[in-house]
Recover the amino acids of this structure.
């Protein structure tokens, strides 16, 4: 493990870099890095990704064991950790990790995939990611208009799934081409003439689209779907939260 350095200034280049990683999607993409905050999530990152690029810890606390020599180890006072953190009550660890590859693979393997279409709330995206990991989906695929999967809020909501389950970003034409090539049918949660009860359709080995709470699955995406499913509920209820709807669909995909 490298010898730690101590930083106390808010104007330090590393501090400015970490602040931008926490705030700017374009900067994260340009730098190929994202933030992981909190003792548990940093522990998950170490378990699944290996040593991070940078590990920052609060003075008076020990850094985790097993860091490689490539990790830049930095000690900061508590007030500087609060400045670096994106949450009101920071813990004692913060890591800078490399962004995983987000491009859709040239060939998709047979499996079950969850697709998000315009889901903009990072908490929902993270919760759906966590649920997709729990119920055995093979990947989460984001169409344009979704929240950044590696924003601090999404990462926190994923509860470590961001280190275990791949997330890919794709244009609709690109996705449908890959699905056709792999023989995987595309379904959506929506209402149209062919809509079936989600309990009556086998969704194993398919890709299913969840739309935003405001507008649902886009018309363009719906036009590419082989079928649609609905989640039965009381008629007085209009819709479900996107993360809740995704949980029901993922359960049916795994069942």
């Amino acid at each position: 493990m490298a010898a730690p350095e101590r930083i106390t200034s808010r104007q330090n280049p590393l501090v400015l870099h970490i602040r931008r990683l926490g705030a700017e999607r374009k900067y994260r993409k340009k730098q190929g890095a994202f933030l992981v905050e909190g003792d548990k999530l940093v522990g998950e990152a170490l378990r699944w990704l290996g040593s991070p690029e940078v590990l920052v810890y609060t003075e008076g606390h020990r850094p985790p064991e097993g860091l490689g020599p490539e990790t830049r180890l930095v000690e900061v006072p508590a007030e500087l950790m609060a400045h670096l953190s994106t949450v009101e009550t920071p813990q004692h660890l913060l890591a800078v990790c490399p962004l995983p590859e987000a491009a859709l693979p040239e060939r998709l393997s047979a499996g079950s995939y969850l697709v998000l279409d315009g889901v903009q709330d990072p908490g929902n995206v993270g919760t759906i990611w966590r649920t997709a990991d729990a119920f055995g989906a093979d990947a989460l695929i984001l169409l344009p208009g979704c929240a950044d999967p590696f924003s601090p809020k999404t990462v926190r909501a994923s509860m470590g799934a961001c280190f275990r389950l791949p997330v890919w970003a794709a244009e609709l034409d690109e996705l449908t081409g890959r699905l056709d090539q792999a023989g995987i049918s595309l379904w959506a949660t929506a209402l149209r003439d062919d809509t079936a009860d989600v309990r009556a359709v086998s969704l194993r080995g398919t890709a299913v689209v969840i739309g935003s709470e405001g507008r649902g699955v886009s018309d363009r995406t719906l036009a590419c779907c082989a079928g649609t499913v609905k989640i039965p509920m009381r008629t007085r209820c209009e819709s479900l939260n996107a993360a809740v709807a995704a949980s029901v669909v993922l359960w049916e995909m795994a069942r």
